[in-house]
Amino acid sequence: MHEVVKALQAELSLRPVIADDLPVFFAQQLEPEAIFMAAFTAKDPSDRAAFDDHWRRILADPTIIIRAVVLDGQIAGSVLSYEEEGQPEVSYWLGKAFWGKGVATRALAEFLARHNPKRPIYARVAADNLASRRVLEKCGFTVIGEGRGFANARSAEIDELLLELTASA
Ligand SMILES: CC(C)(COP(=O)(O)OP(=O)(O)OC[C@H]1O[C@@H](n2cnc3c(N)ncnc32)[C@H](O)[C@@H]1OP(=O)(O)O)[C@@H](O)C(=O)NCCC(=O)NCCS
Questions:
Q1: Which residue puts its alpha carbon closest to atom 9 of ligand 1?
Q2: Rounded to the nearest whole angstrom, what is the distance from the C-alpha of residue 105 to the centroid of ligand 1?
Q3: Are 131 and 36 in contact (CB under 8 A)?
Q4: Reading across the β-sheet that carries 87-94, which strands appear in turn?
Q5: Which residue has its alpha carbon closest to ligand 1 atom 28?
Q6: Res. 9 pLDDT band, cuts 50 70 90
Q7: Within 13 A of 81's CA, how many CA atoms are on the CB side?
Q8: How many CB atoms sit inside 10 A of residue 99's CB?
Q9: Whose Cα sits closest to atom 25 in ligand 1?
Q10: Which of 55, 81, 85, 90 is least buried, going by the fewest C-beta atoms within 10 A?
Q11: Over the stretch 87-106, which tens digit does the pLDDT of each residue have?
């Protein structure tokens, strides 16, 4: 059966993150193509101690909601929301093997519906991360601003877009 059709039929669930997810997330955030796309990454994604510290902090923070994305029993990635200057923002990351099958769109839509009902809610993407921008737009976000930000993965300032999902979208 075609891969995309299989993914559409695959069972997707969001569940709290467990310790066994972390080595998988670590490997997923080491994928060079993903790092380039996301652009606004950790300074050194290969630094396991910094990764563990970061996850320890975010899992302990009550203002951050994080779910593991599980597709047919496999850990596909993560989706989360956090507060930036009092405003909620979402982000997500999938392992490359799971790309191009609608998984991020399904995961984000489910996360927004069940785990973070706050609106407006925001997201930021590198302007050239077209796949991520598309995911957000399919979930009802619209571009409301643009700016420049320093992207560790590119060692340069790059264009960034701010997107918003309003209550009515
Ligand atoms: C961005 C990411 C989450 C997308 O996940 P995904 O499961 O492949 O996304 P979906 O399949 O749900 O949707 C992707 C959409 O982008 C489109 N797309 C993919 N690559 C594209 C490109 N280069 N140009 C334009 N559109 C593109 C797809 O066609 C699809 O749209 P469609 O349904 O209208 O055809 C995944 O690639 C990822 O985790 N990347 C690394 C981390 C990252 O960038 N996170 C986001 C930080 S803001």
A1: 104
A2: 8
A3: no
A4: 12-15, 65-71, 74-84, 87-94, 121-126, 156-165, 142-151
A5: 131
A6: confident
A7: 22
A8: 17
A9: 130
A10: 85
A11: 999 999 999 999 999 999 99
The span from the CA of 54 to the CA of 31, in Å, is: 18
Task: Report which protein residue has its CA nearest ligand 1's atom 18.
Answer: 131
Atom of ligand 1 at shortest distance to CA of 103? 7
Question: What beta strand segments (E) does the chain contain?
Answer: 12-15, 65-71, 74-84, 87-94, 121-126, 142-151, 156-165
Q: Return d(Cα 103, Cα 135) in angstroms, integer.
A: 9
pLDDT tens digits for 107-130? 999 999 999 999 999 999 999 999
The domain that contains 20 carries what CATH number? 3.40.630.30
45-84 pLDDT, tens digit per residue, is 999 999 999 999 999 999 999 999 999 999 999 999 999 9
Distance CA 139, CA 142 (A): 9
CA 31 to ligand 1 center in whole angstroms: 15
- The number of domains in the chain is 1
**54 vs 48, 60, 80, 81, 101, CA distance in Å?**
10, 10, 14, 15, 29
Domain hosting residue 110, numbered range: 3-165
| Residue tagged 């302990």 (tokens) | 60
* Whole-structure pTM value: 0.95
